Amino acid sequence: MVESGTWRVVVPVKGGGDAKTRLALPPGPRLALATAMALDCLEAVLRCGAVEQVVCVSDDERVRTAAAGLGARAVPAGGPGLARAVDAGLAALPPGPTAVLVADLPALRPEDLGAALAAAAARPGPVLVPDADGDGSVLVADRDGVPPHRFGRASAAAHRTAGARELTGALPSLRRDVDTLDALREATALGVGPRTAAALGEMVLTSPCTP
Fold first, then answer.
1. Does the global pTM surpass 0.90?
2. Per-residue pLDDT reduced to its tens digit, 17-65
3. pLDDT tens for residues 168-179?
4. Rounded-to-integer distance, Cα 26 and Cα 20, Å
5. Sign (positive/negative) of CA torsion 94, 69, 86, 47?
6. Less crowded by CB within 10 Å, the N or C end of the chain?
7. CA distance 155 to 196
8. Numbers of helices and strands, H then E, in the chain
């Protein structure tokens, strides 16, 4: 049985001007929002009682500095690509129950993450939490070691093919990742973290999909 407070969590954060390019926002506000969402997500992970260690992986020095200030271990990705970033984070961790979590979860609640990790702790082998749309993945975890990671388009199916079993349950704040303004509106309705709220407050959004 995996005890509470034993999970290691890798959170890759893209950072820089290419972050969250699917959000229909000008570059400056888009980068500020992407960074705010990632830091709110990291803070929620750090507040989760099931988590022992958090590694933030980013080639954006500002993101690493802010993540370290929150209490996460911050390491560089060493180049472009989400798979490379996840591998860098996994390499920085000691053996033990391990999870990989996407960073664009501005409404994440520690209790939703804790519930998912508790369910993962009760099952041998890798598990998967799909996103709210069912096509992507927000979390892969393995109580016995390193989970497979196949993040990208249609990642939920790719993770299932790699042997991950899907966790059920609502987990609304965990499943609501943000790639579009519509998704951002849904996350805002759930209640986003303080940095995301502040970034949104500084924007002048003219899109009809504005949250």
1. yes
2. 888 888 888 899 999 999 999 999 999 999 999 999 999 999 999 999 9
3. 889 999 999 999
4. 11
5. positive
6. N
7. 26
8. 8, 7
Q: How far apart are CA 94 and CA 45, in angstroms?
A: 18
Query: What φ, ψ does residue 52 adopt, rounded to 5°?
Result: -95, -40
Q: Which residues contact 102 (CB under 8 A, 6 or more apart)?
A: 11, 12, 137, 138, 139, 151, 177
Sheet-wide strand order for 98-101: 73-75, 51-57, 7-12, 98-101, 137-142, 126-130, 165-166
Q: What is the mean pLDDT of the chain?
A: 92
Look up residue 206 and give its amino acid: T
For 158, the 3-state DSSP assignment is helix
- Local structure of 187: helix, strand or coil: helix
Pick the CATH number of 7-195 from 3.40.50.720, 3.30.70.890, 3.20.20.70, 3.90.550.10: 3.90.550.10
